[in-house]
Amino acid sequence: MIVLEKRRQPSRHWMLAAPVLAVLLTMVVGGAMFAALGVAPLEAIRTIFWDPLFDPQFAAYSRPQLLVKAGPLILIAIGLSLGFRAGIWNIGAEGQYIMGAICGAAAGLAVYPSASVLVFPLMVVAGALGGWAWAMIPAFFKTRFGTNEILVSLMLVYVAESILASVSSGLLRNPEGRGFPGSRNLSQWDAAANRELIAGTGLHWGVVAAFIAVILAYILLTRHIQGFNIRLSGEAPRAARFAGVNPARVVIFCLGTAGALAGLAGLFEVAGPAGQISIDFNSGYGFTAIIVAFLGRLHPVGILLAGLLMALTYIGGELAQLMLGLPGASIQLFQGMLLFFLLGVDVLTNYRLRLGRGEKA
Amino acid sequence: MLRRTLLATAALALAAGGALAQDDPVKAGFIYVGPIGDGGWTYEHDQARLALEEHFGDQVETVYQESVPEGADAVRAITQMALSGADIIFTTSFGYMDPTMEVAAKFPDVKFEHATGYKRSDNVGTYSARFYEGRAVQGLIAGRMTETNKVGYIASFPIPEVIRGINSAYIHAKKENPDVEFSVVWAYTWFDPAKEADAARALIENGADVILQHTDSTAPQAAAQEAGNVITFGQASDMAEYAPSPRVSSIIDNWAPYYIDRVQAVIDGTWESDDTWDGIGPGMVGIGEISSAVPEDVKADALALKDSIASGEYHPFTGPLNRQDGSVWLEEGEVADDETLLGMDFYVEGLTGEIPN
């Protein structure tokens, strides 16, 4: 009989090994699934993990795309990880991302067609504020009335989606768009465009912001008292209270930071790769970032790597669909496996496996 | 060989590689907004893709990518398809308009065909179907068959194409039955079975006994079947599995002849950007079999209407017609011009509620 025995302390080795093992397990089981679909498993795995980086036909285009796709994921995941460390479960980053994009785009469009250099900075500030304000709603209700932030933040995603639909076909609709929903194209308006900073690299302001967020989060968590408070609140809430940590303040700080970063991600996306506010603007970054945060062990550097890996599975998955004719759902299943195995393997971080009879507790 | 290696170093230049190898089969790519198994819009595009393969055999190779989100991801999907050597790419949803234009500018040697949009360039053509012709036939059947005089309409997005459909159906229902009322629900999705089912149930609870849909799943059909005594129409695809009732007829998109025609033009080297908007006449819009649940006389009238539209004898938007606010749109005998129809953003007189904006 196999018994799970709780470890006194989470194993450091397993904490690092778990993501690697999860990726390997995903490759094995995913490969079996691809084989069942009639595609050579090694070829499928190679197409997903290798071709976007090194295939001569695609790499020149898809390598920079990796940054474009990973940028918002990392930016949002960094914000979420702070809350997750403190035991504050913000599941509504998708809504904060949408509101950031709407507020940022609206601030810009309000001064259209100004060519001032201040337009883009204005939009950045408005985007961050929009996301922050949206996250303050669950923060307010949690600190004031003790509501559950998981439910409130998640439900607000659907509210944000409805607002998105409304402004796309109303307030922010392109007056020259023949009545079709969707705002003006911001990426075609010089003053508002979030351009590629170095041609051919995919590097835009959102990616720069993501890198800065990684560095700041690292410093915060290792060097700053607020980072200590956050970790303490999550690991030992009672001890935190005795140490004089104000729980409400931690909630407001964590949700606010996550909201502002998600809002920024939305703004950089709408002014750059997406180009315009439209009904289908959001494509799930806010939810995928939750996976990225956990895959990265809630550690800033880990999140950076996990964001890149997740982006790789997206872009590689698209190539696999295109080149091997794999169905879209199989790629989603493949990505789902990654989280599933990670959570599964994670048991080993806190428990050890023992063969033989279990001891009575 | 050297030439190939040189080209390979510049991946973007490789797009021109398709033009170098004339003996290779023509590669046709398709970008789909939903899964190919949606049973509606994307399903019909994919059926046409298969018909294309059937028709040309070894001369053509097809690739597709399904469930591509509209926006930034679409740019990447279309670019990768062009990089993979596609000669012609069909982007099959309205939201791919700007992405298609953006990618097309980078690949001047690849032909692009965008469905239901209005932006064109030297290598981007557009195509769409006059679905409103089919809506007229549905409206007639709906007006005659409803007993509660309440018709529910599940609309997707407030864009001209959808508004045209609502107006056309309403005009022809009203002609048959002056007491008919339409309630329109905006689902803000093309494909979301759960949302569509909710919308259908809400409409049925409010007394609607006819449900029209401009969304792609069969969920409203299932909801109608559950409720009983409600009729529906297949959308984009025949949805014959729900015949003879609740599904009493359907609008079927038939893209195959168009796709075959355009790929032939690529093979012949005669492809040029243009704008195609075909209806029942040329066969781009089909009316699915009117089932036995429809009385014979209604069926005969519906088919007569269909024939008169197909022959061009009758236009579904023929005056006298007023706008919702009572102002005159079309005088007696006047026929709507395509420009107005393409930008239609108003309801005709008699429809209640507002178009969201």
From TrEMBL, chain A:
Q: Which residues cross the membrane?
A: 68-88, 95-112, 118-141, 150-172, 203-221, 250-271, 330-351
This protein's GO CC annotations: plasma membrane
List where in the cell it is found. Cell membrane
Main location group: membrane
Which GO MF terms are attached to this record?
Answer: transmembrane transporter activity
Q: Tell me what topology the record assigns in the membrane.
A: Multi-pass membrane protein
Q: Which UniProt keywords apply?
A: Cell membrane, Membrane, Transmembrane, Transmembrane helix
The source's superkingdom equals Bacteria
Annotated protein name in UniProt: ABC transporter permease
UniProtKB/TrEMBL annotation, chain B:
- What are the recorded GO MF terms, alphabetically? DNA binding
Q: Where is the ABC transporter substrate-binding protein PnrA-like domain?
A: 26-312
Which keywords annotate this record?
DNA-binding, Signal
Q: Where is the signal peptide?
A: 1-21
Please give the CDD domains that the UniProt record associates with this protein: PBP1_BMP-like
**Tagged with keyword Transport:** no
Tell me the InterPro entries matching this sequence: ABC-Purine-Binding, Peripla_BP_I, PnrA-like
Q: Per its UniProt record, what Pfam families does this chain match?
A: Bmp
> What cellular component terms from Gene Ontology apply here?
plasma membrane
Protein name, entry field: DNA-binding protein
